[in-house]
Specification:
Structural class of chain B: alpha/beta
CATH class of the domain at 27-305 in chain B: Alpha Beta
Structural class of chain A: alpha+beta
Strand order of the largest sheet of chain B: 1-10-7-6-5-4-3-2
Number of strands of chain B: 25
Number of strands of chain A: 8
Strand content of chain A: 15-25%
Radius of gyration of chain B: 30 Å
Number of helices of chain B: 33
Helix content of chain B: 40-55%
CATH class of the domain at 42-118 and 148-235 in chain A: Alpha Beta
CATH superfamily of the domain at 27-305 in chain B: Homocysteine-binding-like domain
Number of helices of chain A: 9
Shape of chain B: globular
Shape of chain A: elongated
CATH topology of the domain at 42-118 and 148-235 in chain A: NADH Oxidase
Oligomer: heterodimer
Distance between the termini of chain B: 55 Å
CATH architecture of the domain at 27-305 in chain B: Alpha-Beta Barrel
Radius of gyration of chain A: 19 Å
């Protein structure tokens, strides 16, 4: 069993506690659920470093449309014409057109691609609880979300140290689905990181990952400045109640 | 059985076998054979770009693919794979057969050029890349179809064997093996990928995978990829210990490392061969390599290991009786195994109703409660004359396997339900049952032979149940002989010695016990018993059952089918374990009875357990801590104490009728909690704990009502739309709606628009709630709404889910956007109130 240090306040945030202190009884139940999750979690991860090329929007020819963007075209918000005017990013054989990601990675010449999961046991626990006690299911769901984030934070720290050893600094991690970084690129991540083999992560027909508590992300490495510590979730325009800030 | 006859027609023979090539099965396991190594690294060095699909080279660069195969044949490999690992109709919808056939022909050409007509071309089949339902979204039957297409093309093109490899999920492995065996006569070899903990992606172990795949009749089983030879050695040893068939080990050239954005493997040919020699020393019959290995690796491997035991001892037949799920293996041997009997409609009104109402959740609750009570295997019987048993069997097995990792026992008298269950079960099931009648043997044994399974054999035949142990042992012998004829290993037969009530025949228990002892001692067989029949017609049945259980276990009983929710029975079970040195330091016994009170209190606890009302939601409420003062019904709902809520409603029913209690007590209490939730004072888990308490109270009221009476205030369809398999939000809404006495038709997740519309039309339901988690699945939501508007324009559509906003809801034409479960409850309540007027 690998313990993943998970912040209770993050679990509360995912449960929608909005800064109000839960009762001691509720805290006890949440802690009990967190312990069970720790028991069944089986964290696995894989990452690699790869060179990055950013081509500004004006210099991108219109024919260059990646598979990811084609997939995005079916999503409702993809109707915007912004996609075509966004810069093109090339790394690990992927082509991504995204203003948000280009802003995040501006000035970087290398990125780290990452996939991580806390394993299928967590999903089994959530499904079980949906049958036996829905109140526990929502707690497992929130605690699982906090736990995968905590696990990825730990990996992020490891990557930061590796970068520092080479005199490089990290940008906040950025995931497919953030802002205009199309979820369609999940298939690229699956292929490049061999996610099924290396982490046991598979994609469904709608590009959702199984196990559900899994993360894919790009982390930019830049050779000047300092680490940016704020996460990339702010890029998203969606008025989400789980938003960090 | 229809399926069987179709398969015969589909089977493709391999014509024109070269005389230089002996049949693979004559050599497999008797001499060491060598598989090939990696292809990715080699193809990359030939110019395969990142992101380019390797199989396209079968058509684009045939010369390079020939040279790849030729290299391995020349290195001395006996089995070389076709370049078809990723070939399936999901990736190649247009030209699959062309790619597969070319792959086989190119490999054959490589063999010819290498002058290795003695060697074999293996049709290589890799995973689809998609996870099968219920954990993922690819239906099992679809997976079988996808593999079948590849098998048919490959066999037609002249492959000598099927090699299924890098399978990380037992269910997908099963689909591939069935597709191979149903569509060709070629030998079927399979290798799986395990992680550093020795687990499959879906949790399976080496032992559980071996049991399932041997049951399915593969010709060899092994491990490939994921690990280097050093990390694989322990797993190779475990596989040799578990398997009764030849074992294959194909490791990577060490663990992967990143270099300039590429994956590289560091173990060179020399070191690789030295490590493989250690694996050969374990007796492993087939070795090769995987990612990062080259013809040179294999050449050195052969040079280092070829002289070792050219003639191998035949694989040893292991005598363990193993039942598995997708992840757990339970051995039926010296430690008695507890099989839960509660998933069975016989004599249970509520269970029958659940089957008729298609209330799968209730059935799952019966399963989980038994697991929590200590069951190791669950018996599953869903037979009811008025339902479609085969369909129900498939659905219940799949649903149970999505929430529980316990192995299951398929219990049916309907051969169609048995086949459907065996085919779709993920693991090696237990089958209940065959008996000594010729007809039963001829129906059941071929299915068990095809799909694998541990078969319960009842000691009765055309002449009925013998009333002597001699008679029953004789039937047991005949059943073993029949198993020999069907080539089902004797270890996979468990003899049911049959318990008949002592109230009609005073000697019946003695006959049963004698039969158990003799099957155990004379036939070295495993035994099973449905314990509770023994006391039929008597008072205090649990007392008789518990004592009989102890006696039967002492006579050598291997597994008992019983009710694990019964406290008295479980006392006998745990005491037997402690008394026969099966419970180390009596640890389990102490853990179970640390707070045991003797006398009245103890038996009262037993009685409440025996009544079977200790449902999952009840026990969850109890765990949250029973307060010391006695709570009123309203208080217990508001504070989410399920046990007390059920008790309080029982008291209230003595004075008032159910509907009054619902309207005057439960709904007002729920409203207060709901208002608190909306005001941000009550949090979601607390809201749901109140809902669970109210549900426990509703169950009591429902049970108290006579037929015809209904508490339903209206019906609502709920569904998570097509493409979306995250349905927790929808399930929360369901709980809340049911709390407010609405009847929910839950269509589940990943539901096609047509199913939703058909259901709304057929059942004439005016309100439909749809959930979607992702922007990509909002599209399916929109399609569903469009179709509803077209076919049933009067329907009100509520939408909700993580990405949903009022703007989206308006854009896709929904009637109402619900930001949470209470919002939905309010809309539905208003709707039905308005329609009442």
């Amino acid at each position: 069993m690998t313990l993943i240090p998970t912040d209770l306040n993050e679990v509360y945030r995912y449960l929608g506690f909005h800064g109000i202190t839960p009762t001691p009884e509720m805290t006890g139940i949440i802690q009990e659920c967190l312990e069970k999750l720790q028991e069944v979690s089986a964290p696995r991860s894989f990452y690699l470093y790869t060179p990055l090329e950013i081509i500004p929007a004006g210099e991108v020819s219109t024919e260059e449309v990646s598979a990811g963007e084609a997939a995005e075209a079916s999503a409702p918000e993809a109707a915007s014409v912004e996609g075509a005017s966004a810069p093109l990013l090339r790394f690990a054989g992927m082509e991504v057109r995204s203003k948000g990601l280009a802003r995040n990675l501006a000035g970087c010449r290398e990125v780290c691609l990452l996939a991580a999961t806390i394993g299928p046991g967590v999903d089994l626990l959530i499904r079980r609880a949906q049958v036996s006690a829905m109140s526990r299911a929502v707690i497992y769901q929130a605690a699982g979300a906090a736990m995968i984030e905590a696990y990825v934070d730990g990996l992020n720290e490891q990557i930061r140290q590796e970068a520092h050893a080479r005199g490089l600094f990290l940008r906040p991690r950025f995931s497919p689905g953030y802002g205009d970084f199309s979820l369609g690129h999940q298939t690229d991540f699956a292929r490049v990181l061999e996610m099924q083999k290396t982490c046991g992560i598979t994609l469904g027909s709608s590009l959702l990952m199984t196990p559900s508590k899994s993360v894919t992300a790009v982390i930019g490495l830049s050779d000047h400045g300092t680490d940016c510590r704020e996460p990339g979730c702010e890029e998203c325009a969606h008025p989400c109640e789980y938003r960090r800030v | 059985m229809e399926i069987c006859s179709n398969q015969e027609q589909n089977r493709t023979h391999n014509p024109g076998q070269n005389p230089a090539r002996r049949p693979l099965l004559e050599r497999l396991g008797r001499e060491r054979l060598y598989c090939d190594g990696g292809s990715g690294t080699i193809l990359q060095s030939m110019g395969l770009a990142g992101g380019e699909l390797p199989e396209t080279w079968n058509l684009k660069h045939p010369d390079r693919i020939i040279s790849l195969a030729r290299g391995y044949f020349e290195a001395g490999c006996d089995i070389v794979n076709t370049n078809t690992f990723g070939a399936n109709a999901l990736k190649y919808p247009e030209n699959l057969s062309e790619i597969v056939e070319a792959g086989v022909h190119l490999c054959m050409e490589g063999r010819r050029l290498a002058g290795r007509e003695d060697a074999y071309v293996a049709l290589d089949i890799g995973p689809t890349g998609r996870l099968l339902a219920p954990m993922g979204d690819l239906p099992f039957d679809r997976a079988v179809e996808l593999f079948a297409e590849v098998v048919k093309s490959g066999a037609k093109a002249g492959a000598d064997l099927i090699l299924i490899e890098t399978m990380s999920d037992s269910y997908e492995a099963k689909a591939a093996v069935l597709a191979a065996k149903e569509n060709c006569d070629l030998p079927v070899l399979i290798t799986l990928i395990f992680d550093e903990r020795g687990k499959l992606l879906t949790g399976g172990t080496i032992e559980s995978a071996v049991a399932m795949l041997e049951g399915l009749g593969v010709d060899a089983i092994g491990i490939n990829c994921g690990l280097g030879p050093a990390q694989m050695r322990d797993y190779a040893r475990r596989m040799m210990e578990a398997a009764s068939i030849p074992v294959i080990v194909n490791p990577n050239a060490g663990l992967p490392r990143q270099e300039d954005g590429r994956t590289v493997y560091d173990v060179g040919p020399e070191e690789f061969a030295a490590e493989m020699a250690k694996i050969a020393d374990l007796g492993v019959q087939v070795i090769g390599g995987c990612c990062g290995t080259t013809p040179e690796h294999i050449r050195r491997e052969i040079a280092t290991t070829h002289s070792k035991a050219v003639v191998l001892p035949a694989p040893e037949t292991k005598q363990k009786t193993i039942v598995t799920s997708f992840s757990q293996a339970v051995e039926i041997g010296d430690r008695p195994v507890l099989i839960g009997e509660r998933i069975n409609p016989t004599g249970k009104k509520r269970f029958k109703q659940a089957l008729r109402d298609h209330d799968i959740e209730y059935i799952l609750q019966q399963g989980l409660a038994q697991e929590d009570a200590g069951a190791q295997i669950l018996d599953v019987n869903v037979g009811l004359p008025e339902i479609d048993e085969p369909a129900m069997m498939e659905e219940v097995l799949r649903s149970l396997q999505s929430v529980s990792a316990l192995p299951l026992q398929i219990d049916t008298t309907d051969p169609a339900a048995l086949e459907r269950g065996l085919r779709h079960y993920n693991g090696k099931a237990m089958v209940n049952s065959v008996n000594g009648k010729q007809e039963s043997i001829e129906t059941v044994m071929p299915l068990v032979k095809k799909y694998g399974g541990v078969l319960v054999a009842l000691t009765l035949d055309e002449d009925g149940i013998p009333d002597t142990a001699d008679g029953r042992v004789a039937i047991a012998r005949r059943i073993y002989e029949a198993a020999d004829r069907y080539d089902i290993p004797r270890k996979d037969i468990v003899i049911d010695c049959l318990a008949m009530t002592i109230s009609s025949d005073p000697r019946s228990a003695l006959v049963t016990l004698e039969t158990i002892r003799r099957v155990h001692e004379e036939l070295n067989g495993r035994t099973i018993l449905g314990v509770s029949n023994i006391s039929f017609g008597l008072p205090a049945r649990e007392v008789v059952n518990a004592h009989f259980l102890t006696m039967a276990l002492y006579a050598g009983l291997s597994c008992a089918i019983l009710n694990p929710n019964n406290a008295v029975i479980m006392q006998a079970w745990r005491a037997f374990y402690a008394l026969t040195a099966l419970d180390e330091n009596c640890a389990d016994f102490i853990a179970a009875y640390a707070d045991y009170q003797s006398g009245a209190a103890g038996s009262a606890a037993g009685a409440s357990g025996a009544s079977g009302t200790a449902g999952a939601s009840g026990s969850a409420g109890a765990k949250s801590g029973a307060p010391s003062q006695v709570l009123s019904l309203q208080e217990s709902v508001e504070r989410g104490v399920s046990g007390r809520a059920a008790e309080a409603v029982r008291e209230a029913l003595a004075e008032r009728d159910g509907l009054t209690i619902i309207n005057e007590e439960l709904i007002p209490a729920l409203d207060r909690v709901g208002k608190g939730f909306e005001a941000g004072r009550v949090f979601l888990p607390q809201l749901l704990m109140s809902a669970e308490a109210a549900k426990a109270a509703f169950e009591v009221i429902k049970n108290s009502m006579k037929g015809g009476e209904s508490t339903s205030k209206g019906r609502v369809i709920l569904a998570t739309v097509q493409g979306d398999i995250h349905d927790i939000g929808k399930n929360i809404v369901k709980v809340m709606l049911e709390n407010y006495s609405f009847e929910v038709i839950d269509l589940g997740k990943d539901v096609p628009p047509e199913v939703i519309v058909e259901t709304a039309l057929r059942e004439q339901i005016p309100v439909v709630g749809l959930s979607a988690l992702m922007t990509t699945t909002v599209v399916s939501m929109e399609k569903t709404i469009k179709l509803l508007r077209e076919k049933k324009p009067d329907t009100k559509v509520i939408v909700g889910g993580a990405v949903m906003t009022q703007e989206y809801a308006d854009a896709i034409g929904a009637d109402f956007y619900a930001k949470d479960a209470m919002d939905t409850v309010r809309f539905v309540s208003d709707f039905y109130e308005r329609s009442d007027i």
